[in-house]
């Protein structure tokens, strides 16, 4: 169970409820029509945008937001190094008796293919194909949640417009203007709350977990390659340690570069290409210097 996800949702809802109760009652923020417009509209738009089978697959990813499997890359590396040592001493077939003790399914699958005598190209191709399939599945999941985070505020505005139309239609009764305006704004509140506390944060979490799982699977693929080649276990450990450290370093560097790119304005004329010499027509071949 991922405590951080539940804790974040509970803290967010709790602080909002406390701020509401300090100035009014909860009944002022409860509106069944607003809930139907925001939730119903969001799910209806999602059904329009995506096939039903992708939505059913997304439910599995939604569960993964709350339930996660702990993975220690260095522990996984040590497991592969010990397997490499066994294979180096007794041959590849010697690791067959150890397969049932391996917890990582992807590693077990790669070793099973190796023990069954599949050539290296076949093993690498099958494992890379599975990595791409899982990456695409994860991408579908976080894209759906990200789009739901866009749909919810939009339908909040739709509900607000409906409420304003109803309010303007009965302006002769001034006493109803305030209550109707409050109900009209509740749908915007619901849409913003769902988008920024549920859908968008969950999309971010799924994206980060997909990156972590991809790193783990690529590490396993590297380990399988070394085991098949029968390299020195000490060399294998040093190489995989560098792989893990470099992957983490590249991730941090990429995040820093993205933040710098967002904060740096584009220079005018940066995409125009090199300047032409005076008198040269556009697209003409530069004249060689005499």
UniProtKB/TrEMBL annotation:
Its main location: membrane. The chain crosses the membrane at residues 5-22, 28-50, 151-169, 181-200. GO terms for cellular component: plasma membrane. This is MotA1. Keywords: Cell membrane, Flagellar rotation, Membrane, Transmembrane, Transmembrane helix, Transport. PROSITE patterns: MOTA. The keyword Membrane applies. Residues 281-290 have a biased composition (Low complexity). Coiled coil: none annotated. Residues 100-217 form the MotA/TolQ/ExbB proton channel domain. GO terms for biological process: bacterial-type flagellum-dependent swarming motility; chemotaxis. It is found in: Cell membrane. Belongs to the MotA family. Residues 255-290 are annotated as: Disordered. It holds the Pfam family MotA_ExbB. The keyword Protein transport does not apply. It is a multi-pass membrane protein.
């Amino acid at each position: 169970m991922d405590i951080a996800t539940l804790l974040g949702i509970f803290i967010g809802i709790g602080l909002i409820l406390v701020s509401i109760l300090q100035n009014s009652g909860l009944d002022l923020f409860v509106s069944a029509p607003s809930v139907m417009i925001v939730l119903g509209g969001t799910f209806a738009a999602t059904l329009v945008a995506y096939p039903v089978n992708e939505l059913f697959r997304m439910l599995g990813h939604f569960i993964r937001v709350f339930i996660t499997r702990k993975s220690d890359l260095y522990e996984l590396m040590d497991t592969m190094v010990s397997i490499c040592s066994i294979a180096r001493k007794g041959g590849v077939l010697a690791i067959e008796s150890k397969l049932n003790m391996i917890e990582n399914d992807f590693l077990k699958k790669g070793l099973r293919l190796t023990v069954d005598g599949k050539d290296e190209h076949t093993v690498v191709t099958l494992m890379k194909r599975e990595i791409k399939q899982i990456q695409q599945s994860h991408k579908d999941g976080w894209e759906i949640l990200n789009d739901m985070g866009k749909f919810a505020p939009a339908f909040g505005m739709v509900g607000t417009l409906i409420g304003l139309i109803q309010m303007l239609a009965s302006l002769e009764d001034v006493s109803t203007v305030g209550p109707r305006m409050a109900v009209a704004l509740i749908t915007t509140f619901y849409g913003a709350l769902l988008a920024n506390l549920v859908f968008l944060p969950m999309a971010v979490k799924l994206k980060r977990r997909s990156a972590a799982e991809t790193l783990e699977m690529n590490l396993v693929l590297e380990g399988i390659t070394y085991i098949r080649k029968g390299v020195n276990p000490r060399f294998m450990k040093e190489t995989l340690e560098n792989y893990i450290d470099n992957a983490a370093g590249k991730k941090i560097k990429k995040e820093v570069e993205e933040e710098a790119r967002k904060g740096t304005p584009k220079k005018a004329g940066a995409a125009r290409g090199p300047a032409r010499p005076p008198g040269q027509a556009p697209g003409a071949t530069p004249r060689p210097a005499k």
